[in-house]
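Cont'd.
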Amino acid sequence: MTVALTINGQAREVRANLGDTLLTVLRDQLLLTAAKRGCNQGVCGACTVLVDGRPQRACLSLAANCEGATITTLEGLTRDPAMGRLQKAFAARGAVQCGFCTPGILISAHTLLARKPDAKADDIRAGLSGNLCRCTGYRKIVDAVAAAAAEAKP
Amino acid sequence: MTALPNAVGAALARTDVREKVEGRAQYIADLYRPGMLHGALLGSPHAHAHIKSYDLREALAVPGVHAVLTGEDFGDHRMGAFIKDEHAIAKGKVRYVGEPVAAVAAETEAAARLAARLVKVEYEELPAILTPEDALAPDAAIIHEELASYFKVFDTGSKANICSRTSLTEGDAAAWSKCDVVVEGDFTTQPQAHVSLEPCGALAEPDASGRVSLWSANQSVFRVQANVCESLGLPMAQLRCLTPRVGAGFGNKMEPHIQPIAVKLALATGRPVKLILTREEDFEIVRARHPFKLRVKTGAARDGTLVAREVSVLLDGGAYADDSPGVLGYSLFVSQGPYRFQYRKAAGTLVYTNKLRFGAFRGFGNPQVSFAGEQQIDEIAARLKLDPLDVREKSMLRPGDKWFGGAEVGSNGLAECIARAKSASGWAKRAELKPSPGKKRALGAACTAHISGLLATGAIVRMLEDGSIVLNTGAVDIGQGSDTALTQICAEALKVPMERVRLASPDTDGSPYNWGTTASRVTYTTGRAVVAAAHEVEKQIKQHASEMLEAGIDDLELRPGGKVGVVGVPDKAVSFFEVSARAHWARGGPIVGTNTYVFEKPSVDPKRAIAVGLPFPQIGVFAFGALVVDIEIDEASGKIEVKRAWSAVDVGRAINPLSVEGQIEGAFVQGMGLALSEEMVWDGARLANPSLMDYKVPTALDAPYEIHPIIVEAPEPDGPFGAKGVGEIGINVVPAAIANAAAAALGKRFNALPLTPERVLRAMLAK
């Protein structure tokens, strides 16, 4: 079947078999590979993307159900100032090691700060608890998100 | 980014971080090639069985299928780091549930998976050996009937289901009679899964000449090349191994996973084939941390001086030897901790069972022996009413002391590690800590040492026409930051800005040999080679400059920013651009500096110790660490919460302090998983929890915000700018320190991991 959706601001039509997930379509058809397949079970959070502005696991969303949806991946946020602050803080504060979880974590952090611009360390820990990272021990990620939040303040 | 000239020691952002935060970094699953097919595997449903026959008709009938391969398509070639006991795919026999028995290449991943499921295999079941004790039973089924004929790289002592055995003894057993306190106990540790966020995968592409290019999730392009070629019977020169970015490893990607199968599928179809494991397959068929059974006995004098220790271990190695003999040997080598003993003995046996292979995992056996040994030091302190850190300080190895077995220890910053962890944690006032309502609270501590070193390494430093530098080492950055650290080392050695040095991606065709990203070794070993290769370049630069400036070589100096000039004459200098242009077009030829070496200092002094079956004659230099944790235990649920941690590590010299902290913090949280929540559980022969829903790695809420990395720098005399390794040491004593804190809080000892709420509660209720 054909599914019409908006991806990173562009109207697209994609082919999708019944069982194809949004993640498969994004990666294999559109070559948008920032979202990662870490577990394909909706646990690790590496595939997190925005669907109609809300963070979702692309590995749990069937592409066929995304008709008319607006999808934003990390690639679509390259000019977003809030994402820019997060990216800068992640780079400067050692919040990235292998980087495989990073796109999903950045999407979750971006949503968190949009909802709660003054998030404190414990809010950030809770807000990112659906994204696994096996390298950093999380502390530098929490610090980076807090730093990006602080930088956003006038 | 510009750091001039002090690249070494600067907390620089990673050289690969932009691509990672923008989602542009390419990992193995992100690679696509024209005409690429997708691979899929069929795993064995049995733990131990003969393969009687295959029926491929239904699988081959699936539209889009290009090849279906089984053991019959593979020659009788075996691979293995220590014992060559493993085929690329099950051949004749299966030895664990999930072991690949058939592989498919098809137009789509869905077609490949469907066809793999339709391969029919007839088995004749054999008794499954699921515990090390079963493996050692006199009438046990034999897992490797041809074990005696396998090629082995050291004296393994293999027989029946015994894969290898090792022992190391030093001193006189009569020392036991000098002990006023002796503690003895049995300990067990659980299997832990690596859970690199990126599952293993490979992409193989044959070219027109018959050579194959292979990209894969790996920790060493050279080990991939060796393993694939050994298991397929290919000349190594026929295979080129490369690496994309790697989504972490922790040991899981050092030795082979499914690279040989991907190469075979590519050769069979003449097409590029990408094979990416699912998370379940990654749990079931790659490798995991060894479960240990230990019996440990430690004795001390009345004043707390440690006197004697004996350690014996039994390791479940799983179905194939892989790195297990190394883990056994290393665990014994570090089983005495960083202490002086008058007598010490360590012996162990590694057996085959019908489980997935166990292998290298950050710490390499050290966390398991430390869990036992470091608890016994606390037990001794408790019996003698001494401060457990005082007991450690009294007997710790001091600068100049040798390691167990007689290896030379270079720099030793242990005393400073202990002192700084003590003072940062408020150790002396720990009795005054207030628990939250309904909780018990205590601090716990433990100490460790770890090697960095092993085997062969190289570096090539090339100066291009414009004077910029390409550094090529073959070392794979798996996320720990070696690309950045090695670039810093090279920039510092040549006094050029970081952005003038770029790193070539590891490639077996063009990179110098690098054994791998393992054994906490890249910064130390490869860094040394980079410094030496940069010095070669410096020599050539000075030769040119001496002719260009008409000055003696000894009167020349490298100047910050890519210049060479005459000492004391500021305006008499030429740029690297001018030097390199001359070398390329007029005199001498392009400037290339190379260095290769193999670590050569002996592990054991035969005049001091007796070693049997120790698989690493030359091992490495030593890093040291001390850890203090602050925990609370919920009296109602038994749940342990780690509130704060202070992890002091002697890294020699922190090339990049930000990355060093990252290693210490990340290792701590991975160690928390081992201590508190992670456990692979088998239901009979089948792994019951191969999913992240049922296998609990720590989340951002489980990890304490207050992890305090403390960098101690006792410069290693032959390390690059004094550096030694930091990758593993931070995990070693996390379970031990938490268990010591739990014992301090509850008055109960824990001899088994993990310290789940259930286990802790049961101990609290047992009066």
